[in-house]
Amino acid sequence: MASEDVVSKTTGESAVSTIVNLAEEAKLASEGVKAPSHALLSICKSLIAGGVAGGVSRSAVAPLERLKILLQVQNPHSIKYNGMIQGLKYIWRTEGIRGMFKGNGTNCARIVPNSAVKFFSYEQASSGILWLYRQQSGNEEANLTPLLRLGAGACAGIIAMSATYPMDMVRGRLTVQTENSPRQYRGIFHALSTVFREEGPRALYRGWLPSVIGVIPYVGLNFAVYESLKDWLIQTKRFGLAENSELSVTTRLACGAAAGTVGQTVAYPLDVIRRRMQMVGWKDASSVLTADGKSKTPLEYTGMVDAFRKTVRHEGFGALYKGLVPNSVKVVPSIAIAFVTYEVVKDVLGVEMRISD
Fold it and tell me: Could you read off the pLDDT of 220-237 as tens digits, one per residue?
């Protein structure tokens, strides 16, 4: 009888052990299924937040964005846009409200995926760089330095720019064309197909090199200045702006404005050269029309250095900063809105990781 009890007890323990093991295996299997699903959902939310941030920030400053491009590429012998206020009034008088937002649909179609890829790439790049930095330094508590943030931002900018460059190229042409231009692109896909067919696939990436070179300091400094300034304010608690290790929306907007101002001032000449190289091969660009609307021979650039040289020689060094004033007015709210919108949308969507983390 005792032996039967022992056998029964042993059998019971064995059954319980089996059930526990099966439950643990089921739990692990369940976690294994949920983990990739959870990671994918987090990635999608991060991309959505970046896309929304880009669309909102760019639409808010669309008229200034168009004026900036028109100032960059206008014919120096036939000045139509002479400053920010006069330029905006001229566009309003000649083209109305639609003229103020011309090219914004294409711009958003480009900036939404660009912004999504940029913010997500920055998070991934900063995580990878931080891991390598901790491994090399042997300090598991180390944080990203401003220089490392600059590197992560540069990586993000290069990836995002390369992925969406053809959209940026045709956006520039859609923005520049007027009612008097003989060539009329009907939209994004018509512009893409027309440039591809008439000028070849390489034309879609014309001006890519100065764009990539320019995006390194521009996007890199945007992220580095924004994140470093936020960290400095939180750690030092200067001016009483940080409460419970958090910054207000207004303070974060100010940090974003400072970041945008620094980045665009450094990279602006490359943006001018990029835009001019994009117009090469398009005989109907406003930059190569005389006052009476007749076409004249456009300047041809053999490369980025040649574009710099010819621009400075024909128009002076100041031409590299054409449109800087409206661009500065545009960048201050645009970058600020993008950063803050990104963080707010991620909070709303419930994404755990933020840029600072």
Answer: 999 999 999 998 888 887
**The pTM of the whole model exceeds 0.85:** no
User: For residues 261-270, b (16+ Cβ closer than 10 Å) or e, as one string?
Assistant: bbbbbebbbb
Nearest to 66 by CA among 165, 222, 175: 175
Q: End-to-end distance of the chain based on CA atoms, in angstroms?
A: 65
Would the pLDDT of 199 be above 90? no
Q: Which domains does the chain have, with CATH numbers?
A: 2-349 (1.50.40.10)
Joined together, the tokens standing for residue 116 give 């999504």
Residue 177 has phi, psi (to 5 degrees) of: -65, 145
| Amino acid making up residue 86 | Q
3-state class of 264 per DSSP? helix
Q: For residue 286, which of 132, 178, 130, 161 has the smallest C-alpha distance?
A: 178
Run of H or E residues at 163? helix 146-176
**According to the model, what pLDDT value does residue 352 have?**
58
